[in-house]
Write a structure and sequence with these properties.
By secondary structure, the protein is an alpha/beta fold. The protein folds into 2 domains: 3-259, P-loop containing nucleotide triphosphate hydrolases (Rossmann fold), CATH 3.40.50; 268-403, Sandwich (Jelly Rolls). The protein is built from 14 helices and 15 strands. The chain has helices spanning 3-9, 34-44, 58-64, 99-111, 119-125, 127-133, 135-138, 140-149, 157-161, 164-173, 183-194, 207-210, 215-228, 235-259; strands at 22-26, 49-51, 72-76, 91-96, 176-179, 277-280, 290-291, 296-299, 306-309, 318-330, 338-345, 350-357, 368-373, 380-387, 392-403. Strands 6, 7, 8, 10, 13 and 15 form a 6-stranded antiparallel sheet that branches. Strands 2-3-1-4-5 form a 5-stranded parallel sheet. Strands 9-14-11-12 form a 4-stranded antiparallel sheet, with no helix packed on it. It is globular and about 65 Å long.
Length: 405
């Protein structure tokens, strides 16, 4: 991709609601891009969405140009030399993530992927030694972006390190760089740029939680990653990864200054004590179930554990109650039934409050818990987990948050 073309790309910052626009999403694995992809795919509909999965290639993009005269959405993990296929009118975007979080999540995913030839090595070596011997996993986000800028054949650390300037320049030139750890800001900016309100309050799947990974395990891996920053073998690669991540954060901050110079305002309904904030079921994510106008209906028959994930939300500091709005048609009650109502804080999903509900009638008190929001800048998420039902159906309508003080 030439600098001239990239300069042309940046002339029009705001992309109007125009399905003639070609959006190309360079999806770096384990950076939380699935929800964004799903929302953008719904914008274009069947026939104009092209999912390249593990290989968004130069040849693939060039081969589709004749079909993109009326716009389209292309996304996937990048292949070699993808950048040379991008054109001035394309809205090119990507997301990055805190390097320690990305590396830990990527490693855990690798250990559970039987199709990956490195799986056994990852399990037997452990996290730190695996990164030492497979240096491209130590700076994975930088390397993934570097692939899109190079032809096949860049294989040594020295060649990889020489790409850092090009990677930083590429981020400068594309239309949008999001940061998973600042998801509320990222989605607000992207929503404004694409004139697409559906991007606000995205439900984001925490894949580690779905796989049953303990927070303690993630914390241990991130501590190992931090120790590797002084490692003589790969410490300098982690520094490159940090540089790219900080570049992404700076670019997002510039976009925030452009589109939201006063910052993201807190929901005014969250200020006055006693006034309720309702987050409907339509804002929540569930892998199963049927969506209706005002609720999500989920069959619970024989499910060991199913979690419904809410969108990220910011609230002013204070004490709140949250009522989970649901009812369960329990046709065959069992003693193993349980419902977990959770409030988690931050993108690392620290538990802020939990209420466990056992078998029996569900009064309002048994569906309501109280929590304290200590930090204004943190995001909150509401989750409901269900397990142990033999024959039951849940109708979930959302949550109602009420400020107490």
């Amino acid at each position: 991709m030439s600098g001239r073309h990239l300069s042309d790309m940046k002339k029009n910052e705001v992309v109007k609601r125009n399905t003639g626009r070609v959006i190309i999403f360079i999806h770096i694995p384990k950076t939380g891009g699935t929800s964004v992809s799903d929302t953008l795919a719904r914008r274009y509909g069947p026939g104009r969405v092209f999912d390249f999965a593990d290989h968004l290639s130069r040849e693939g993009v060039e081969g589709l140009r004749s079909e993109l005269s009326n716009g389209g959405f292309l996304y996937g993990h990048p292949g070699h030399d993808l950048a040379s296929a991008l054109q001035p009118g394309d809205f090119v975007m990507t997301f990055l993530r805190n390097p320690a979080d990305q590396a830990a999540s990527n490693y855990l995913h690798l250990t559970e992927d039987p199709a990956n030839p490195l799986r056994e090595a990852a399990i037997s070596l452990g996290f730190s030694e695996f990164l030492r011997r497979n240096w491209h996993y130590a700076a994975f986000q930088t390397g993934t972006l570097g692939v899109s800028l190079t032809k096949p054949g860049v294989g040594s650390q020295r060649e990889f390190e020489a790409l850092i300037g090009k990677v930083l320049g590429f981020l400068d030139d594309i239309a949008f760089v999001g940061v998973l750890d600042r998801l509320d800001e990222s989605c607000a900016v992207l929503s404004r740029m694409l004139d697409l309100p559906d991007l606000k309050d995205l439900p984001v799947l925490n894949a580690s939680s779905v796989r049953g990974v303990r927070q303690e395990q993630l914390d241990e891996l991130k501590a190992e990653y931090s120790a590797l920053k002084s490692d003589p073998t790969i410490g300098h690669l982690l520094a490159l990864e940090d540089a790219v991540y900080h570049k992404a954060g700076n670019l997002l901050s510039r976009k925030m200054d452009l589109y939201f110079p006063d910052g993201l305002a807190a929901d005014p309904r969250g200020v006055a004590p006693g006034s309720a904030i309702v987050v409907p079921a339509s804002k929540f994510f569930s892998e199963i179930g049927v969506r209706h106008d005002d609720h999500l209906e989920v069959g619970l028959d024989g499910i060991s554990m199913h979690v419904i994930y809410g969108p990220y939300q910011r609230l002013p500091k204070g004490v709140y109650s949250v009522e989970f709005l649901f009812e369960v048609d329990d046709r065959i009650p069992t003693m193993s039934e349980r419902i977990e109502l959770d409030v988690v804080a931050g993108t690392d999903s620290r538990l802020a409050a939990r209420l466990l509900v056992g078998p029996g009638p569900l009064s309002r008190e048994l569906r309501t818990l109280t929590f304290m929001n200590t930090f204004r800048e943190e995001v909150l998420e509401y989750r409901i987990g269900v397990a142990g039902f033999a024959d039951a159906t849940m109708k979930f309508k959302g949550v109602e948050i009420t400020p107490l003080c």
